[in-house]
Each structure stands twice: as structure tokens, then as C-alpha cells.
Specification:
By secondary structure, this protein is α/β, with parallel strands linked by helices. It has 9 helices and 10 strands.
Length: 256
């Protein structure tokens, strides 16, 4: 599949920063701080799940930058039952109708390989939207074979931490993947990206897109001092907000 994403990769475009957000407020803050694209999801603490359609619709109404939607029906592994997979297919159709610019998803089989049949179906159904194979890749048994499988399925980009907890630690594998990809797919480092760790990834000038979750925890927003909230630990949890300074700091490192 030839796409604007893959064509632009061969022309070495300006570097792009994608921010993972879980609400319209967070997405708006990220856009204002300089984000070039949004990955929208919910339940970031669980690695990200499919956001509600109300959230998707509101974000698409408000934002001027592209929005890609994560489709992941549950937490845990990326091996899905038939019903779960049919849910993913239905979600793609609905999200296309809502007007998103991209889909973020992916499937593994129980042997730790890319499920090529199912991933190929997802990519084809998502067309003409851009398709990102997400960090399910980081659980793949053989990253080099997995890279070739994702490319063969026609995905536009691969989001990966280099099979480490954070992309800075996985920089060596990410560099190898980028060289092997040879502009056939965009390799987008993600996980633990900040103004320090990104330097290791910028050094070899192999990457044009980066992904980060720029959040800060606020305990001050936690508590409504009435009734059960005084005794319910869930009601007293704080809230996460987009950390605009983190975004600005990473953008500054990308542009120097």
C-alpha cells in the first residue's frame, strides 16, 4: 500500500511529535503546546484502550491537527478472540465514519508472532486512513521477522520502544529496525520519551516521528469533601493532566 505517509518518509520531512492523550482537554492542551499529531485513547494506565465515541467525536470537532485513534478492546495481551476481533473491525468502521485521520492497532498470535492474516484485514479495512502498528510489536518473539511481517501487511508506521520499558533503553534495536526498514515503513520511537532520553534517539538522524505521553499527576484535584468520597479511596485519587512543558522541552530538543 502506497500512502502519503510512506512517500513523505522517503523525502525526509521535518520531525513530528505525536502525543498520547485520553480526553478532549488533554488533546487541546497538547495541540497548544506544539504537538503535531494526537493519539487518542482511554485508560493510559492500562497501556491504552479504545476511547468512547463521544470523546472521539469531540476531539475531532475541536482539533486542527491530525488525530489517530487507538483501537484495543481490552488490556492484557494482544491475542484476541473472534468476538474481540470483530469488535475491532466494527470500531474501525465507526471511527472512519467519524472522520479520524488514522488508526492505531495490531494483533499477535499465541506464539508471539504478528498475526498477519488479522493485521492485514485491519490495515485494508482502515484504508485510506493511516495505520500504525502499536507496541504489541514489543512483545513479538523475533523483532526482525515481526518488522517484515508488519511491512508486508501494509502498515504506515510502527510504534516501538525497541522491546524495552522505554525507548531510550531500546535505542540500539530501534536503530537496527530503522536501518532494516529502509524507508518502507516509519519507525516511531515511543515510551519514556523526554527531553533527556530523546537525545540518544536523535543522534543518528534515523527517525522523523516520536511518540510520548506527556502527563503530570495532580493530587489537588482528587477530593470532593462530601459523603462517601471521604471514605472511598477511588474517589480520592488525583487526576492526570497534559504536561505542556514536557512537550515544549521535547519539541525544543527535536528542533535543535
Amino acid at each position: 500500500m502506497i500512502s502519503m505517509d510512506s512517500k513523505s518518509a522517503s523525502r525526509q520531512p521535518a520531525m513530528l511529535l505525536e502525543i498520547c492523550t485520553d480526553s478532549a482537554d488533554a488533546a487541546l492542551a497538547a495541540e497548544a503546546a506544539g504537538a503535531d499529531r494526537i493519539e487518542l485513547c482511554c485508560a493510559i494506565e492500562a497501556g491504552g484502550l479504545t476511547p468512547s465515541y463521544g470523546c472521539i467525536k469531540r476531539v475531532l470537532e475541536l482539533l486542527k491537527i491530525p488525530v489517530h485513534i487507538l483501537i484495543r478492546p481490552r488490556s492484557g495481551n494482544f491475542c484476541y478472540s473472534e468476538n474481540e476481533f470483530l469488535q475491532i473491525l466494527n470500531d474501525i468502521e465507526i471511527i472512519k465514519a467519524l472522520g479520524a485521520q488514522g488508526i492505531v492497532s495490531g494483533v499477535l498470535n499465541r506464539y508471539g508472532n504478528i498475526d498477519k492474516r488479522r493485521t492485514d484485514l485491519l490495515v485494508k479495512l482502515a484504508e485510506p486512513l493511516s495505520f500504525t502498528f502499536h507496541r504489541a510489536f514489543d512483545l513479538a518473539k523475533d523483532p526482525f521477522q515481526a518488522l517484515e511481517d508488519v511491512i508486508q501487511c501494509g502498515a504506515n508506521r510502527l510504534l516501538s520502544s525497541g522491546q524495552e520499558v522505554c525507548a531510550g533503553e531500546g535505542a540500539e534495536l530501534l536503530h537496527k529496525l530503522a536501518l532494516l526498514a529502509d524507508n518502507r515503513i516509519i519507525i516511531m520511537p515511543g515510551a519514556g520519551i523526554n527531553s533527556q532520553s530523546i537525545d540518544k534517539l536523535l543522534a543518528n538522524k534515523l527517525f522523523t516521528e516520536f511518540h510520548m505521553t506527556a502527563r503530570v499527576f495532580s493530587a489537588a484535584d482528587a477530593k470532593i469533601p462530601t459523603g462517601l468520597s471521604e471514605r472511598d479511596p477511588i474517589a480520592q485519587e488525583g487526576l492526570w493532566h497534559t504536561d505542556t512543558q514536557k512537550i515544549k522541552s521535547v519539541k525544543q530538543r527535536m528542533n535543535t
